[in-house]
Amino acid sequence: MTSRINARSMMVAGALLAFTVAGCSDKEQGHAEPKNPAGGLSSTAPTDSVPPTAIGPTLEPCELLSTDELAQVGEFSSRYEEQGGARSCHWQNSMKSGGDGFTFAVSVRDAQSVDVMNDNGAGVESIEINERPGRVSKNAAHGSCTVALKLDDISRVDISVPRTEQDDACEIAEVIAGMVEPNLPAVP
Q: If we measure between CA atoms, which residue out of 83, 80, 86 comes closest to residue 50?
């Protein structure tokens, strides 16, 4: 079991390294049906009350990562969805090409800052990803994890990883957040 943790962490870390070396690439969209979509994300904040100066509405969640950026860890496809105050892109590793069906979501929350991130059961901790302020919240009951990255004072991007067999969802979410962060505009 430990070797599976290390293998998955190494695969995700390899993708991060490949991304930082390769830079931006073409974006592709596909279709996937994740087993556990947003992994515990919830919100009641309306997105139609967003000020025109907010960064969130200018971002498309499926364009914050590409299949090329994830190619080092497997073949991924994406699916767009709007739900719970967020515009989300759900990514799934293809089982057809030998993948394990691993899923995660990248969500833009136009009207929710990192300061109002929900406690999913294990507290909310402040972090930095590539010097960008963020928060981490783990769902203790389900083992899922969400990393939120600050866009501005009123919006954020969430990276959500559902429960993993090895209880390493937060570690994986932080690595994926490290891949997403360079594709975000600077914090004002």
A: 86
Residues in the chain, overall count = 188
d(CA 167, CA 61): 25
The token pair that represents 79 in the structure block: 């699916």
> Tell me, what amino acid is at 179?
M
Q: What amino acid is encoded at 48 in this protein?
A: D
Q: Which of 188, 175, 186 is nearest to 70 (CA)?
A: 175
d(Cα 147, Cα 154) in Å, to the nearest integer?
Answer: 16
* Strand ranges (E), 4-143: 76-83, 86-93, 103-109, 124-129, 132-139
pTM value surpassing 0.85: no
Distance CA 83, CA 95 (A): 26
Contacts of 141 (CB under 8 A, 6+ apart): 121
Q: With CA atoms as reference, report the closest residue to 151 among 132, 164, 179, 166.
A: 132
For 76-126, how does the pLDDT look when each residue is reduced to its tens digit (9 = 90+)?
999 999 988 899 999 998 887 677 888 999 999 999 999 999 888 888 999
What is the residue whose two structure tokens read 């691993």? Answer: 102
